[in-house]
Amino acid sequence: MNTAAIVALVATIGLGFVTGALYLMRARRKRLKDLHLIAALAASALVLAAVLLAPPPNLPGPAGVLPIALVGIATAAGWGAWKLARGSKARGELVLFAHIVLGIAGFFVFLAWAKSVSAA
Fold first, then answer.
1. pLDDT at site 64
2. Which position among 6, 45, 69, 90 has the lowest Cβ density within 10 Å, counted as fewest Cβ atoms?
3. CA 15, CA 23: separation in Å to the nearest integer?
4. Threshold 0.85, pTM exceeds
């Protein structure tokens, strides 16, 4: 389960990178953005399942709720960035920046959590 979640998170980050690069070049691709959202939803579900179905950690590490919260908030921020911005481009870009930071942090925290669970 952890491997599937990691692969889904890597795919989500990769799609997000391409989507963000196209946004900066002012070349928007709605289907790519939609694919990024679908990958993010799948990754969020896999992270949730991995944490809820995992045995207790063998090593000290982040609590399981932390990667769930970070990935979930990042997904919500990405989906609702322009709705939360209420027409302000500056606010929208600030929410997108938070989305990027939370998503990457969620990925690394999930990796740390997965290591603490899988260590023998």
1. 84
2. 90
3. 12
4. yes
